[in-house]
Design a protein that fits this description.
about 300 residues, alpha+beta, 12 strands, about 35% helix, globular
Amino acid sequence: MSAARGWPALPLTEWAPTRDTLHLLTQIVGKVRLARTPVAEHWWNVPLYVTARGLTSSLMPAGPRAFQIDFDFIEHVLRVTASDGERWQLPLAARPVAETYDALMAGLDGLGLATDVWPMPVEIEGAIRFDEDHTHTAYDPVYAAHYWHALVSIQRVFELFRAEFLGKMSPVHLWWGALDLAVSRFSGRPAPPHPGRAPNCGRHVMLEAYSREVSSGGFWPGPDGEGTFYSYVYPEPAGFRDRAVRPGAARFDEELGEFVLPYEVVRTAVDPDEMLLEFLHSTYAAAAETGGWNRTELER
């Protein structure tokens, strides 16, 4: 695997417009999944998943049929595949979000899979309705593929981290609200009601998402540079943010309320996988030790 494919550079100065358009397209697909699936704990019925070609909604029910929606970052198409063999696809290219939204809704309707969604993006300040968004139009296939290749490498490391835990743990999944790939460990104890809210999200969203004590690590392609690895705990125990974590480039961001590590530092390391694991291990240990988690029973 070449370095470009394994840990590609992701300078936001070059691909931010494509990132922003892709973010909105994943929200459209995610909202179809939200409308089609029963609510699961922590909203685990709504994320997308990394595949060998891009991202997928995974299988969604449609009466006696089922279907899935895939982003193919090799052929650069948005594809709907139904369980009866019917298919629809649209090239991923530079065009307004509104046009892609209208095309996908019409494509689903043509397959007998019409799905009503609320066409308002979530977790984005100043959001524009999907069907009215003629502002976000960029799509650079090179950087879309680079982002996906980065997710493939990050997924590999997150799965190693996930395999070490015996307690309740999330899948490795992509949250389309913020376009972050994440994996979460749980102490097994309930958490106090979460006080926060996000744009265009009802309070019930946060209450369900953070109903149990959680330590979460992830990758977010923002806010600047080449993106950020993060790690946080809810509720935050006393002393958590003061703990020394590894590697040395990691720090606690007071504004975000979480430990962060620049993606660029990881991708340029001698062993990126090992550095990312070190970050996940040390920040989780800070959460578990300050939070009094039963590590003997929860860890291999």
